[in-house]
Design a protein that fits this description.
The chain is mainly α. The chain has 13 helices and no strands.
């Protein structure tokens, strides 16, 4: 299901060719509307047969057509500001993508509200990420540096993680609507964090600690994406210590081995007393968070 759906979505987004420009604005709008109508018809047919996954994929396909339709409309009306083309939408940061992103968010929210399929949150999460970068380009007058991109990505990812947590608390008894928000929130946050340039040892150690906190958050919330990226960042820091800081030290591998074995021992203790530790730790948490963790465990 997902392979076919992603190929169809990619064909109208990431893999769009310049040949479509020959249709002109009116042609692009007409084809987009036709595709959307067919997509909604298939979605309704699959939904009536209780085929939730393919129905959700088809509904998501309709949402992903929105930026193409808005681009075509702007070309048709003659209000497109420069010579950039639609295929650049997924490659470059520019302020005039904002109309396409706002339209995609509006359509995405409406379709998600109507059909309530978790996969529909995916284009919404991607668009939120895109929009934060394009807003920064608009505010900076189009001259956006790599450092600013990394900083904005980090903070926008943090906000998206907060939104995902709020959605998780509100919807954990129905469906996993927070999944894609967590995915792209963590990618944006961790990518921005890892792109920060600093030669300060304290900053690098803080980076390591943040990655450890991400692993802890992933274990607590039962979200593997935190654990995966936290582990990648932690291993990156340990690799930096091994190859740059302690490259001539014979003691570092021994200490690292001892730490690793200590973690294994702590894992054994945790497994042995997991039920007691879990009950005591959760008793201190607010009721909504406690209910969320109990539902996930």
């Amino acid at each position: 299901y997902y392979l076919g759906g992603l190929i169809a979505i990619g064909a109208m987004t990431l893999f769009m060719t310049l040949g479509w420009e020959s249709f002109g604005g009116a042609g692009i709008v007409s084809i987009s509307v036709l595709y959307a109508a067919v997509g909604l018809k298939i979605t309704n047919a699959l939904s009536a047969k209780n085929l939730a996954i393919p129905a959700g994929i088809c509904a998501t396909f309709v949402v992903c057509l929105t930026p193409l339709a808005i681009y075509g409309l702007q070309q048709w009306l003659g209000v497109w500001p420069d010579d950039s083309v639609y295929r650049d939408y997924h490659r470059y940061i520019q302020w005039h993508w904002l109309y396409m992103e706002l339209g995609t968010l509006a359509v995405g929210v409406m379709v998600a509200w109507k059909y309530k399929y978790p996969f529909l949150i995916m284009p919404i999460a991607v668009t939120l990420w895109y929009m934060t970068m394009d807003i920064s380009a608009m505010l900076s007058g189009g001259d956006i540096t790599w450092e600013l991109r990394a900083l904005i990505s980090m903070y926008s990812g943090l906000l998206m993680i907060g939104l995902a947590f709020w959605v998780d608390i509100r919807s954990h008894q129905t469906a996993d609507y927070a999944f894609w928000l967590y995915i792209f929130g963590v990618i944006a946050f961790w990518g921005g964090l890892s792109s920060q340039n600093s030669d300060d040892q304290l900053s690098k150690f803080i980076y390591f600690c943040i990655n450890l906190l991400m692993i802890g958050a992933g274990v607590l919330l039962v979200r593997k994406v935190f654990v995966i990226f936290g582990a990648l960042g932690s291993c990156g820091y340990l690799g930096y210590l091994a190859f740059d800081v302690f490259q001539d030290s014979w003691l570092f591998p021994i200490v690292l081995t001892a730490i690793g074995l200590g973690i294994v021992f702590l894992g054994i203790l945790w497994q042995k007393h997991e039920k007691t530790i879990t009950q005591k730790s959760r008793s201190w948490l607010p009721a909504p968070l406690r209910e969320l963790l109990e539902a996930r465990s």
